[in-house]
Amino acid sequence: MSKQVKQLDRVIIRFAGDSGDGMQLTGDRFTQESAVFGNDLVTLPNFPAEIRAPQGTLPGVSSFQVHFADHDILTAGDAPDVLVAMNPAALKANLGDLPKGAAIIVDTHDFTGRNLTKAGYDANPLDGLGDAGSPLGEFSVHPVDLTGMTVEAVKEFGLSRKDAARAKNMFALGLLSWMYGRPIESTISFLQKRFAKVADIRDANITAFKAGWNFGETTETFVVQYEIKPAPMSAGTYRNITGNLALSYGLVAAGVQSGLPVFLGSYPITPASDILHELSKHKAFGVTTLQAEDEIAGVGAAIGASFAGSLGVTTTSGPGIALKSEAIGLAVMTELPLLVIDVQRGGPSTGLPTKTEQADLLQAMFGRNGEAPVPIVAPQSPGDCFDAAIEAARIAITYRTPVMLLSDGYLANGSEPWRIPEIDDLPVIDPKFATERNQTVTAKDGSDVEEYWPYLRDEETLARPWAIPGTPGLEHRIGGLEKGDGHGNISYDPANHDLMVRTRQAKVDRIAESLPPLVVDDPSGEAKVLVIGWGSTYGPIGAGCRRVRKAGYQVAQVHLRHLNPFPKDLGEILKRYDKVLCPEMNLGQLSLLLRGKYLVDAIGYNQVNGMPIKAASLAEAIGGLVAEAEGITVDLTSSPIAEEASK
């Protein structure tokens, strides 16, 4: 039959089902197909914390959202255009996120009385779809027996019905791949490799995938195929990458560019464990990984590795940072390079292990006893995790200090196209190991004696020398007790303690001198409102500002990578604007710091629901503040804003 082809500039698709239905794999494969095709894309995986949540229940629903387009995009999208629901619970859990007119492809097979009850339905929502009072009347619903057709398609392989039904996610992927013109060769190749050892499972999944494609091609249920052209991108080699993978590559690159072996001491914790898994594969680059018995052992081993001349790294999430706090203070006192990676999640305590949040900023700033300043770096997108890791390593090695890198669950698991950098474009980091004695002292007999003093300072950075243990003549001791200035012996002298505390703070402050000027996105130069953020709010803030500008209003944006110390020009930038809005996935932590340091009335836009901020809602808040600053009425339901929000 003849099929129509309709051009679209972007689409948001959400795959949803039981946590055992393979929705993460399905979404990932659709993402890879879109990346191969050349679309710009951003993804949002969302899954339960339990290994296997109760089947068929709302808490057990797992989903994967992908936003792909023929132009530059910044977020995974506020609301799906298409929902693929594999059971009643998946439908109910996601229905509230759909805009009117959204398409729903629903697997009818599991809409039994028992499953409907588990999902909280009193009646089957698929009954009476054409009736005026249908609960799904506002949507374009396509009931399809995905499971039944999958079982029929793969029956030749002799699988049990349960094993055959597991391939339904590949049938759904094949159907969606046809609908949106995705290249299928990469998925077939993937399935061939993934199930190479089990021929029947391999062939069944490939057959189900092709059956889904053929169903789309031949059925009268779907008469329109959609085309989203590739997005224009600067020349280079691209790959789709998650934040955790990019961060891992950044750590490997930091080791290569500094000439240091990388040592990771880590304890598995969601959502940071993938970094440990990935780095364990890269022994060829001088990477050593230790899965420690607990968080404290992990950071202790990393500090020991740094003392021995390696780039010590420890990875964790918020609860692990709390456990590591004393050891991080030890690294502050000993002034050793150390990278502390905090992939933030919902808290406090165990909190929401698989949901995102950026509520560890104050813990990173102040979560240690005594005056223990630690530089803080935060990436803004999955791909930016690579550059942020190298920057954190540069600071740690150059200034002899632990550095906190604040990623989060959204960045860690989300993905985007990433331009693979040229090696020559990466910064060279010189550890400048001490190789000779550095101080002349007078002995009791009046003769001059050369000694190695571990706490002498570099005049530019205030960093102390770093000597590899075993270097002849540079024997020294370090530890957690206060050090005497220069010589590094234990000192309880009040004046010395005051000097050392202020020196360690001045060393961190000195980092600001090496930072480039902040880039303020203020196209007209006439904006009165500045939106400032950090971390993964970059996407929603950028998308929100675009929508407000498209509606004809002026707003400026600046995003912080360095949160301690702040860039030296930040205070001057804040003073230019009448109002400052600070969106965060916490209750106002950056706002508090900005108010305290710069005495600016930073207005918080705060969300702590475990999900990324929605650009449309943020655009309304920005528009309201612009109206207040300009003394005008901003119509946020005007055509440009409404059109953007609906997408």
Account of the protein in words:
This protein has 647 residues and is an alpha/beta fold. The chain is globular and about 100 Å long. The strands form six sheets. Strands 11-10-12-13-15-14-21 form a seven-stranded mixed β-sheet, with helices on both faces. A six-stranded mixed β-sheet has the order 3-4-2-5-6-7, sandwiched between helices. The longest helix is centred in the N-terminal third of the chain and has 20 residues, at 199-218. Helix 4 (146-153) crosses helix 6, helix 4 (146-153) crosses helix 8 (199-218) and helix 17 packs across helix 20 (615-630).
Topology of this protein?
Elements: E1 4-7, E2 10-18, H1 23-37, E3 40-46, E4 61-69, E5 82-85, H2 88-95, E6 103-107, H3 113-118, E7 140-144, H4 146-153, H5 161-165, H6 168-179, H7 185-194, H8 199-218, E8 224-227, E9 238-242, H9 243-258, E10 262-266, H10 273-279, E11 287-291, H11 295-307, E12 311-316, H12 318-334, E13 338-344, H13 361-366, E14 376-377, H14 384-399, E15 402-408, H15 409-413, E16 415-419, E17 439-442, E18 448-451, H16 494-510, E19 529-534, H17 538-550, E20 556-560, E21 562-564, H18 570-575, E22 579-584, H19 589-598, E23 602-606, H20 615-630, H21 639-646
Parallel strand pairs: 1-8, 2-5, 5-6, 6-7, 10-11, 10-12, 12-13, 13-15, 14-15, 19-20, 19-22, 22-23
Antiparallel strand pairs: 2-4, 3-4, 9-16, 14-21, 17-18
Helix pairs in contact: 1-6, 4-6, 4-8, 6-8, 7-8, 9-10, 9-14, 11-12, 17-20, 20-21
